[in-house]
Amino acid sequence: MIPIFDGHNDTLTKLYSLENGLDLFFKGSQKCDIDLPGSQKGNLLYGNFSIFVPPKMTSKERDPMYGMEFTHKGYRKRLANAIDPNYARKYTNSLIKFLNLLKVRAKGTIYTIRKYQDLIKGLKNQNLGVILHFEGAEVIKKDISNLEWYYQKNLRSLGLVWSRPNNFGTGVPFEFPNTPNIGPGLTDEGKNLIKECNSLGIMIDLAHINEKGFWDAENKSEHPLVVSHTGVHSICPSTRNLTDDQIDAIGDTNGIIGVMFEPSNIRPDGKLNKNTSIKTIVDHIDYIIQRIGIDHIGLGSDFDGAIMIDSLNHVSKLPILIKFLKKEGLTKNSIEKIAFRNWIRVLKETWYH
Ligand SMILES: [Zn+2]
Questions:
Q1: What HEC string does the chain produce?
Q2: From the CA of 152, how far away is ligand 1's center (Å)?
Q3: The CATH number of the domain where 314 resides is what?
Q4: pTM for the full model?
Q5: Range of the domain at 325
Q6: 207 CA → ligand 1 middle, Å
Q7: For residue range 335-350, what is the model confidence (pLDDT) as tens digits?
Q8: How far away, in angstroms, is 108 Cα from ligand 1 center?
């Protein structure tokens, strides 16, 4: 069975929010998209496990549809407010402790990936490798003095922004149809953060960032460009998706694009319709292959962070996607690149060791 590297999930954040989250993860549950039995069944070997700091919300605001305005062509949601960095640090540090608890209970079936060699070892031992990722850099101090502390806590992948502003840059509001070119680029601190991530060997993830911020990062970073969970704008023109110029730039830096499984960012009509065929995901994969080749495409489900299409709404279903790619006529070598080899190559180039 082909191993799978998933470029983005919010499972830690989800489990932390659930009562008995750890029990559900080890037993398996419909309440989370990724659990341990499902990962073993689906052959998920690695993932960028995200810590996402949720905004403090009233119960009304907790509804994902809150503030969503439907237009005759699609939808529009106001950009979320910035969050307090102190709150973000407190929340993130609790989640790092929660991940440690999860690892203790897993008795070796889950381990932290710190370096390239861990990825290679992971191919043999078949356990689930966790790469610690922050979705948004709110926890990082403006002077970047605590980045190394988080590196010591195993942070290996950092999303500059979620869909809200912070000290370093600005994300896109959720809109369809619209261009990702909304709002200002990176701040001076944002450019410094890229330099520091480059020198420590922390992967920078450009998911959720607006277009000006993307080009500032492209200009500043010496690493392959990475967008962990996204889609193709010319198939589905949502603000979260990549324009052809952005796709080309990612190819030029030997980077990677993780395609997500969330209907409203993959369907040409932008509808949040769970009854969407796997073929729609494969259309995004094919488009990227046609445009920049087989070496720059991977998976980035967004499990536990968004609504998934029904046919891929649990980690145990991942082999269905692999089978679909086989049916499409892709070779084993190409499928392996999409499933895990491209992600491993990018991390090898980014982490230094
Ligand atoms: Zn996201």
A1: CCCEEEEEECHHHHHHHCCCHHHHHHHCCCCCCCCHHHHHHHCEEEEEEEECCCCCCCCCCCCCCCCEEECCCCEEECCCCCCCHHHHHHHHHHHHHHHHHHHHHHCCCEEECCCHHHHHHHHHHCCEEEEEEEECCCCCCCCCCCHHHHHHCCEEEEECCCCCECCCCEECCCEECCCCCCCCCCCHHHHHHHHHHHHHCCEEECCCECHHHHHHHHHHCCCCCEEEEECECCCCCCCCCECHHHHHHHHHCCCEEEECCCHHHCCCCCCCCCCCCHHHHHHHHHHHHHHHCHHHEEECCCECCCCCCHHHCCHHHHHHHHHHHHHCCCCHHHHHHHHHHHHHHHHHHHHCC
A2: 24
A3: 3.20.20.140
A4: 0.97
A5: 4-351
A6: 7
A7: 999 999 999 999 999 9
A8: 28
